[in-house]
Amino acid sequence: MGDAPPRTPEPLRVAVLMEREAAPNRWEDWRFRVADVELDVGQFGRKSRCLRDDGRVALFAHPGLAVALFADEGEGYHLNLTSGAPVWFVMWRVQEGDPSQARPECVTLSYNEAGRLLDAQERVDNTPLGAEVRGWLQAYTDAHYRPEPKQRRRPASFVAPGQRARRMPEPGESR
């Protein structure tokens, strides 16, 4: 039968808990932050809802977000796991037309994907990753990620003149 490629696990279902603070300072009407990410086993229902609101701080649950793993994101998972403090990365947006509401748009475990989202000027917060999910991610990363072998670069003096890239002079250096 041959060796079958490692199976990609089913996506995790998570709920993002977001906190909203009213008038945190004189420049902001609202401040949002990701309070937590929890495995979603149905405890929050199917729709986003307010869990508590004391007039100043409110906590909202946003259930049903999928966290899928992809073989080509192995380096990003590895970087997250070896950072010393692995995290969930949550990209969220303030609702258009209602600046008092914010919603998580996606959740990832890839450091590289979070970096791409930040480069695209998206809001990305993180929150600590629990041991259970860390073990799941580590097993997947161990099975799918192989670091690129480091290749030694030959000094230019050992490369044939026709193969040398044209080198730009350093500042203050003449040609």
How would you summarize the topology of this molecule?
Layout: E1 12-25, E2 28-39, E3 49-53, E4 57-67, H1 74-81, E5 87-94, E6 102-108, H2 111-119, E7 123-128, H3 131-144
Helix pairs in contact: 1-3
Task: Characterise the protein shown here.
- With 175 residues, the protein is of the alpha+beta class.
- It has one domain.
- It is built from 3 helices and 7 strands.
- The strands form 2 sheets. Strands 2-1-4-3 form a 4-stranded antiparallel sheet, with no helix packed on it.
- Strand 3 and strand 4 form a beta hairpin.
- The protein is elongated and about 70 Å long.
- The model has no long low-confidence stretch (mean pLDDT 88).
Q: Using only CA atoms, what is the Rg?
A: 23 Å
Q: Count of DSSP helices?
A: 3
Overall tally of domains:
1
Average pLDDT number: 88
Helix content: 10-25%
The chain-level structural class is alpha+beta
* Poorly predicted spans: none
In brief, what are we looking at here?
It contains three helices and seven strands.
Which descriptors would you attach to this protein?
175 residues, single chain, four-stranded antiparallel beta sheet, alpha+beta, three-stranded antiparallel beta sheet, 7 strands
